[in-house]
Write a structure and sequence with these properties.
422 residues, eight-stranded antiparallel sheet, six-stranded antiparallel beta barrel, 24% helix, 39% strand
Length: 422
């Protein structure tokens, strides 16, 4: 029996080594085939000629068309008079780039060079989970590298579809292609969480961007700001429609019946029991949010959605001491910190609402975006009042949503609440 186990262990070891060798051979072949089609993309500050940001791009569809991430080239879109865009090849050659079109929701950009750039890569569908994939890019703005990893499918708790990739995607590789064994593009490098956890934009979204650009023969969009605004408006409408049309499950939180996970792309968790010093009180929490947002600039993120419910009570605290903790327990989850150049001030209204015979105080706030006047950051803070040492806190945060859609979501949340003291 022991001999059989030893033979099995040896066989497994040899099998693993064989697979690793095969993957290495494929990586070497793909690198040799496509190294002249993958470029370093640089945002440069004219005059001082310093790099403001660096990423990767690759030739797609035509020999002078490149794809990359929007976040790699966003400085050029947001401040075209301050920056310029360039490519650099593995042989040291350089040249200018023009932004043709962007998809901010999926963090993609199409660029045009002034000369042929190499063999265009081809797009294909995502293979089955567990399949080896190969990511190309310029890690830390260094020389071109290829990384072997594994496809783990679409991330379930992502508001904006991303492929989970078990491989070391490092800063600077953003915008590079991830290939299957045959050398076709299945995703575009976009982010990393470290420890060989990377994220890819599905290549199908790049295919859609190329199709739209080809309809105008790849003429540069003259008004990218309006295009981005329209993309954000369409995205929030689609997201709100899906949330409102979903079946909302009910869960119990303290004496309240509340919505659980209202949309299948949200990540939800719970928490309870909190101790502060020698004073013990109970907090039961239900927190739901999307795990990602839309990159607009270093300061701005769009399309983030979250909501939280807290039930608090204590048998030890006085009403005044409990009220102090109650006030400290609410918070906003907006992922961006815009400046006064980006947004106006919050405008808030206060409402007293009765739900199942219980009184709630609701503060509803919105601030407009200066570049996207139809959109707001929408925020709700609602608390149970008049209950001494027990309370409920409800918060909802939605960035870049129309005021009407924010109010429609709030109305459905309020209609889903039910007091249930038993």
């Amino acid at each position: 029996m022991q001999q059989m186990l030893c033979k099995l262990a040896i066989f497994i070891g040899l099998f693993a080594l064989t697979n690793a060798a095969i993957a290495q051979d494929i990586a070497q072949e793909l690198y040799s085939r496509y190294e002249s089609s993958v470029y370093r993309i640089e945002v440069v500050t004219p005059g001082v000629e310093n790099k403001a940001s660096v990423g990767t791009g690759f030739v797609i569809y035509r020999d002078n068309i490149l794809a990359s991430n929007y976040h790699v080239i966003s400085n050029v879109v947001n401040e075209p008079d301050r920056y310029r865009l360039e490519w650099e090849g593995v042989d040291g050659r350089r040249g200018p780039l023009t932004v043709l079109a962007v998809d901010v929701v999926h963090d993609l950009a199409l660029l045009r060079a002034e000369e042929p750039m190499g063999l265009p890569l081809q797009i294909t569908s995502l293979p089955e989970n567990g399949t080896s994939l190969f990511s190309l890019g310029h890690p830390l703005a260094l020389e071109l590298a290829i990384v072997n990893g594994t496809n783990n499918g679409l991330q379930e708790s992502s508001l904006y579809e991303k492929i989970l990739f078990s491989g070391n995607i490092n800063p600077g590789m953003s915008g590079g292609p991830t290939l299957d064994r045959s050398g076709q593009v299945v995703g575009i490098n976009v982010a990393t969480s470290g420890e060989a956890v990377g994220y890819l934009v599905p290549a199908t979204y790049l295919e859609e961007l190329i199709e739209n650009a080809s309809a105008t023969n790849f003429r540069p969009e003259l008004d990218l700001a309006t295009s981005i605004s329209n993309q954000l408006i369409d995205n929030q409408q689609s997201l709100v429609d899906q949330i409102l049309d979903s079946d909302w499950p009910k869960i119990s939180l303290g004496k309240l019946s509340i919505p659980g996970r209202v949309f299948n792309r949200l990540d939800c968790w719970s928490d309870n029991k909190f101790e502060e010093g020698n004073v013990r009180y109970t907090v039961n929490a239900s927190v739901c949010q999307g795990q990602d947002s839309i990159y607009l600039s270093e300061q701005l993120r769009a399309g983030a959605f979250s909501y939280e419910f807290y039930w608090l009570d204590s048998q030890q605290l006085s009403a005044s001491a409990f009220h102090q903790i109650y006030q400290r327990s609410s918070r906003s989850r907006f992922p961006s910190r815009p400046t006064e150049e980006d947004v106006g001030n919050f405008s808030c209204t206060t409402h007293f609402i009765e739900i199942s015979g219980q009184d709630f105080k609701a503060n509803v706030c919105a601030r407009p975006y200066k570049d996207y006047p139809e959109l707001t950051d929408f925020m709700v803070l609602m608390t149970l009042v008049g209950h001494g040492t027990e309370g409920v806190i409800f918060t909802m945060d939605f960035s870049t949503v129309t005021l009407d859609n924010g109010l429609a979501l709030l109305e459905k949340f309020l209609g889903a609440l039910e007091w249930n003291p038993s």
